[in-house]
Amino acid sequence: MIMSDIIIIGGGILGASTAYHLAKLGNNVTVIDKEEPGSATDAAAGIICPWISQRRNKVWYSLAVKGAGYYPALIHELKQDGITNTGYKKTGALVIRTEKKQAERLFKLAEERQADAKEIGAISFLSPNQIAKHMPVLSEQYFGVHLEGGARVDGKLLKQSLIDAAKKYGAKFHVGEAKLKNNSSHLEVLLNDEKMKADQIVLTNGAWLPDLIKATHPICKVKAQKAQISHIHVKNHETDEWPVVIPAGTKYIVPFSNGKIVVGTTHEDEHQFNTNVTAKGLHEILHQALHIAPGLAKAELVETKVGFRPAAPNFLPVFGRLPGYQEVYLANGLGSSGLTTGPFLGKELAAFITNQSMELDPNDYNVSCLFEE
Q1: Please, what is the average pLDDT of the chain?
Q2: So which cofactors does this thing need (predicted)?
Q3: Residue 325 phi/psi, 5° resolution?
Q4: Is a pLDDT exceeding 90 seen at residue 257?
Q5: E-strand stretches of the chain
Q6: pLDDT of residue 276
Q7: Which of 128, 95, 99 is nearest to 109 (CA)?
Q8: N or C: which end of the chain has fewer CB within 10 A?
């Protein structure tokens, strides 16, 4: 295989994973990230449990399941590279519903999907009393389904793990704003107005893609969705082994060690990249969190983070070549499943760029939908 000079613009979870896998293949990799406030990866606390999703898009579900299934292998690879503090831990997932029949339907759904996803692990139906043993701060109104294979991940820690591992294989990282210059039939990368050598360019800068390519592609249908996510601290509880909690709707509870609990999230489409924490957003998060888990009422509010998720049409991630430029690749649109799909998609993008065998069919995730009028 011919080794290439590859520049990656955007160093979130997707860019970091792509850099790691490309560098491990022997390529000369340089990552440029301007560390823009509002990074989706840095704000996120990930729930790795796609198997009970009721989204009807089978292509998305296939990607999410492959993404969840890839984690054990990735964590093992990183451990071999000397990286152990990855932010990932399999704690199980607790899916809760107020109606027993709803919980029973989810139990059956998980059983059906287990045939094609052994990583789900053991599946248990839980009564309200049994739920209290797993998660004592929850309301007593819930029935639940416990999935042994569910996991949590700290996005910022995992991203840094991938960056540190990529550096071990020679990857370089620069903080700064990259720009693209159209030079007849190809694009050039400028960093601080200095041209950088690149055989291939990879665009993984998430919600900021439209601004980066506006000179050559004035229509780019990546939308930024604002998320506010609160971190709280509870005393007198050992939280490290608590499962992630998935209620109905868009809210969640993700326990970490030492009393740290992350609750989220908002989905805001009107924001103009404003990173302010808002009273409305904070009320929405905490009101729902305390309804689900009244035992958190006396917890300390530590901080609220803001991130901007990149959403593509139909909320389906895409990857491939930038139209009109054979040497430029992109991946985008991970949305709220970025920490589930990002590491795996980075591996697949690296394989696509280097003509290696792939698990995904690129035609299912075609980038053309971003540029259609």
Answers
A1: 94
A2: FAD
A3: -140, 105
A4: yes
A5: 5-9, 28-33, 45-48, 88-90, 93-97, 123-126, 143-147, 151-154, 172-175, 178-183, 186-191, 194-196, 200-203, 223-233, 244-246, 252-255, 260-264, 300-311, 318-321, 328-332
A6: 95
A7: 95
A8: C
Q: How far apart are CA 153 and CA 41, in angstroms?
A: 11
Helices 155-168 and 58-80, axial angle in degrees (round to 10): 60
CA-to-CA distance for 100 and 107, rounded, in angstroms?
10
Q: What is the token pair recorded at 295?
A: 């035992």
Please check whether the domain covering 5-42+156-221+313-370 is classified as CATH 3.30.460.80: no
172-175 and 93-97 strand pairing: unpaired
Class of residue 163 by CB neighbours under 10 A (exposed 0-12, middle 13-18, buried 19+):
buried
- φ and ψ at residue 227, rounded to 5 degrees: -125, 130
pLDDT value, residue 271: 74
What is the rounded radius of gyration, in angstroms, for the C-alpha atoms of the chain? 21
- The pLDDT value recorded for residue 20 is 98
DSSP for 212-239, written as a single string: HTTTT-S----EEEEEEEEEEE-SS---
pLDDT at 1 over 60: no
Alpha helices by DSSP H, listed for 39-99, are: 40-43, 58-80
- pLDDT tens-digit readout, 357-372: 999 999 999 999 999 8
The 10s digit of each residue's pLDDT in 266-305 is 999 877 799 999 999 999 999 999 999 999 999 999 999 9
The answer to whether the beta carbons of residues 266 and 226 sit under 8 Å apart is yes
Question: What would the CATH number be for the domain defined by 90-150+223-311?
Answer: 3.30.9.10
* Rounded distance between C-alpha atoms, residue 161 and residue 210, angstroms: 28
Instruction: State whether residue 91 is helix, strand or coil.
Output: coil
